[in-house]
Design goal:
The complex is a heterodimer. Chain A is mainly alpha-helical. Chain A is built from ten helices and two strands. Chain A has helices spanning 19-55, 68-80, 83-115, 117-131, 139-145, 149-174, 178-186, 191-225, 234-243, 247-275, and strands spanning 5-8, 11-14. In chain A, α3 packs across α9 and α6 crosses α8. The chains are: A mainly alpha, B alpha/beta.
């Protein structure tokens, strides 16, 4: 709405970005950037100091590669020899497929839970029970049920992420003003209009919040899930680095996992801001 | 935007919410000619809002029927559109999107939708806010959007359930005049429920008073005045006094012994 104009009494009142607004925005961005870099700097300093203190003991000197500098130095090398791009692609595919499945199943499930009272009552206990089972505990069963480890990992991601999506969708729907359905029906809306034109836009914010939570859970689950059975992905790369005693690579990969997770979460936050219609 | 009026026939209409609750109203009969602005007034609980919801097809009668030019109302339809006490706009949409939402449920071309939305927005004088989010509008402006959203459907009958009761006096007065003017210009019927005697006289061609429990129409009064119905006009004030007296008389209405439940 920043560039909107309105004509009042023949004159044009501009609601655009004024000089004050612009300076406030610049100040706010500068503040945020300062906090971001100082926070990151403190984290790296604590990491470096911790490793320095540990390696003061000569018997622990091999841990020097766990420090921030060796980890940062290993990144270009791991990028060039394809470790990071390959891990990004494999883990990204599994995460995307698992999360995609969770969204495709979780949203309709959440809509049913939010719209149909008997369904919500019937499924509440079983779903809460399933939600509390650690996703990784499904791994032995998933390996038996699915033909390969690839599908088993995708299943683990899906089962870990489906609950936040479904429950956030249902909770969003519970907050929808029932009058909107009455108005829409009064204007000739059919059931599919209710879903596509009323329910979905009304709860996009809640769905995206659920996806953000699901992404966090999925990103935590996918790394240990890749420790076994597969020969690609960040989990495998970390295991491989540990077995090869390449501690700088190991810590470099941990760094990349953190950065990727942070970037994915930031994308979700941007989408939530973009699609949120809530004011205040 | 060519809107036409309709003849409304309410025949033996009875309603009860469930077998455990009392009858809301019993055997209501009423005819409204095409283009009439009909006010339904009465105290809370006499069933006037329920009657309006049945006219909109949102509620079903227990007995009896409502005919619009001979067609029975059994479900909501863009031909008979209801405007509620609160605007209930969709907050993720702009003014234009809210106004056109009913058209998006039907099979309208993009050009036709744009044309009708522009005209409806112009009718309620919100041209400068077409691209604004509805959350940025005042209460009165939001109610105008709700009015445009109803008008864009080109209904034969516009039903209003105390639509201006939450607005300030100036906005309410302006909208009352606007709705009547638009209805008369376009020729569609309006049926509105109100507690406000002034509103009934300013907007209506006829007022019916509901009273009793179960409710029924106990009085009616023609508001036979030339347009515009100005609240400062002596004829309007005289009719207001008459309607108030009739309303007070209706408040003492006792159900006749013979009025038994149809069920």
């Amino acid at each position: 709405m920043s560039s909107q104009t309105a004509t009042v009494g023949g004159g044009v009142v501009s609601a655009g970005v004024s000089g004050n607004c612009l300076s406030r925005a610049i100040k706010s961005t500068a503040d945020k950037s300062l906090h971001f870099f100082v926070g990151l700097g403190v984290l790296f300093a604590l990491w470096g100091v911790g490793i320095y203190i540990v390696t003061l003991n000569p018997t622990m000197s091999q841990f020097v590669d766990f420090g921030p500098l060796p980890a940062l130095k290993s990144l270009p090398e791991m990028w060039e020899n394809g470790i990071i791009p390959k891990a990004l692609s494999s883990t990204g595919y599994r995460l995307g497929a698992g999360l995609g499945l969770a969204i495709v199943i979780g949203i309709p499930l959440g809509i049913l839970m939010g719209r149909i009272r008997w369904f919500q009552r019937l499924t509440n206990v079983p779903f809460q029970f399933l939600r509390m089972i650690s996703p990784l505990s499904w791994e032995p069963i998933a390996v038996v049920v699915f033909a390969g480890w690839e599908q088993a990992i995708i299943f683990l991601i899906a089962i870990a992420s489906v609950w936040p999506v479904a429950f956030a969708t249902a909770s969003g729907l519970a907050k929808v003003d029932p009058a909107w359905f009455k108005v829409a029906r009064n204007l000739g809306a059919k059931p599919w209009h209710m879903v596509t034109r009323i329910i979905m836009p009304a709860i996009t914010f809640d769905i995206l919040t659920g996806i953000r939570l699901a992404l966090g859970v999925a990103w935590i689950v996918i790394i240990p899930a890749e420790f076994l059975g597969v020969t690609s992905g960040f989990g495998y790369a970390i295991e491989d680095a540990r077995e090869g005693l390449e501690y700088a690579h190991l810590m470099g990969l941990v760094l990349v996992i953190g950065v990727v997770g942070f970037v994915l979460d930031s994308i979700c936050v941007l989408l939530i801001k973009r699609f949120s219609w809530h004011r205040g | 935007m060519a809107i036409r009026g309709t003849e409304i026939k309410i025949q033996g209409l009875t309603h009860r919410y469930s077998s455990r609750t009392g009858v809301t109203f019993n055997r209501v009969d009423l005819v409204s000619p095409p283009g009439e602005a009909l006010a339904i007034i009465g105290r809370s609980g006499c069933g006037k809002s329920t009657l309006l919801h049945i006219l909109a097809g949102i509620l079903k009668p227990t007995e009896g029927k409502v005919l619009l030019n001979g067609t029975a109302i059994t479900a909501p339809s863009p031909r008979w559109v209801m405007m509620f006490q609160a605007p209930h706009l969709f907050p993720w949409m702009t003014v234009a999107q809210n106004v056109g939402v009913g058209l998006s449920f039907g099979r309208w071309s993009k050009e036709e939708t744009e044309e009708r939305v522009t005209e409806a927005i112009k009718l309620v004088e919100l041209q400068d806010f077409a691209a604004a989010n509805v959350q940025d509008l005042s209460g009165g402006q939001q109610q105008r959007v709700a009015l445009a959203r109803s008008l864009v459907m080109e209904p034969e009958l516009l039903l209003l359930d105390e639509p201006f009761s939450a607005l300030d006096a100036f906005t309410r007065s302006s909208l009352q005049k606007d709705v009547r003017n638009i209805a008369k210009r376009k020729g569609f019927n309006i049926v509105f429920v109100t507690h406000d005697i002034d509103e009934a006289v300013i907007m209506g061609d006829r007022a019916v008073i509901m009273a009793g429990s179960p409710g029924n129409i106990v009085h009616e009064l023609d508001i036979d005045l030339p347009d515009p119905h100005d609240r400062h006009d002596t004829a309007v004030q005289a009719l207001r006094t008459r309607l108030m007296a009739t309303f007070q008389e209706a408040a003492n209405y006792k159900k006749p012994e013979s009025a038994t439940l149809a069920a």
